[in-house]
Amino acid sequence: MLKKNVASFRYAFHGIALLLKTQANARFHLLAAGVVIVAGLYLNVSTLEWAILALTIGSVVAAEGFNTALEFLTDLVSPDYHELAGKTKDVAAGAVLITAFAAIGVGILIFGPKIAAIVL
């Protein structure tokens, strides 16, 4: 049982490494997450705000992972161009964009007032 669990984690970490190795957008999202974490430390966000930021970061990176998995699977089953394959990839990419826009909204709501208090 423990051996299976260790193997499952190994596969999962391999998947994360593959995501970061092959997807520039995933690396960008990870960089953005780092900036958000530094900003959160600097601006002293609350525990609740940290929880919201963690869930938001996780959602964006997970969406990027699902998008990448769908792209790989689509390429496997449809190596030649097919309209439905293109639609599949477009919808998956759109889902990532939605989560990224939501993350920007969360960032504005959490960091906006803190930055305004410093600047104004």
UniProtKB/TrEMBL annotation:
Origin species: Haliscomenobacter hydrossis (strain ATCC 27775 / DSM 1100 / LMG 10767 / O)
Lineage of source species: Bacteria, Pseudomonadati, Bacteroidota, Saprospiria, Saprospirales
Keyword Ion transport part of the UniProt annotation: no
Gene3D superfamilies on file: 1.10.287.3610
An annotated Gene Ontology molecular function: ATP binding
Residues annotated for a divalent metal cation binding in this entry: E71
Keywords: ATP-binding, Cell membrane, Kinase, Lipid biosynthesis, Lipid metabolism, Magnesium, Membrane, Metal-binding, Nucleotide-binding, Phospholipid biosynthesis, Phospholipid metabolism, Transferase, Transmembrane, Transmembrane helix
Cofactor: Mg(2+)
Transmembrane stretches, start-end: 28-45, 91-111
GO biological process, one term: phospholipid biosynthetic process
Cross-referenced CDD domains: UDPK_IM_like
UniProt protein name: Diacylglycerol kinase
GO cellular component: plasma membrane
Cofactor stoichiometry and binding remark: Mn(2+), Zn(2+), Cd(2+) and Co(2+) support activity to lesser extents.
Annotated residues for binding of ATP: Y11, E71, K89, D90
Cellular location(s): Cell membrane
Family designation: Belongs to the bacterial diacylglycerol kinase family.
Binding site for substrate: E64
InterPro entries xref list: DAGK, DAGK_sf, UDPK
PANTHER family for the chain: DIACYLGLYCEROL KINASE (PTHR34299)
Coarse class of the protein's main subcellular location: membrane
Active site: E64
Membrane-related topology note: Multi-pass membrane protein
